[in-house]
Amino acid sequence: MTIPARKDISEIEDKERRFHVLAPASVVVALQVEAGKRCTDAWRLGGAVIQSWLEAGCPDHIERRHEVGQ
Predict the structure, then answer these.
(1) φ and ψ at residue 57, rounded to 5 degrees
(2) Angle at Cα 51 formed by Cα 4 and Cα 19, nearest 5°?
(3) pTM for the complete prediction?
(4) Less crowded by CB within 10 Å, the N or C end of the chain?
(5) What is the mean pLDDT of each successive set of 10 residues along the chain, which is 70 residues long?
């Protein structure tokens, strides 16, 4: 068996895929609640969050957002 040659990323179909991550139950519930508020599902919202983190260069720290009036 040989190792497949690398391909240019533009040659690979960029279709949606599910994968599993681990998080405390409270995080899963919070993600599901937030997804409901955004009229989507937890899979898509979680994927969007991970994608945004990757596009931001995988920062080591994310600042907590302060709500108006706090």
Answers:
(1) 90, 20
(2) 60
(3) 0.72
(4) N
(5) 84 86 96 97 95 93 78
Residue 61 main-chain phi, psi, to 5 deg = -140, 140
In 10 A of CB 46, how many CB atoms?
21
How far is Cα 47 from Cα 21, in angstroms, rounded to an integer? 11
The rounded distance, in Å, linking the Cα atoms of 36 and 42 is: 8
Q: Distance (Å, rounded) from C-alpha 55 to C-alpha 42?
A: 20
pLDDT given for residue 6 in this prediction:
84
Task: Find, among 52, 53, 31, the residue nearest to 42 by Cα.
Answer: 31
Alpha helices for the chain (secondary structure H):
25-37, 42-55
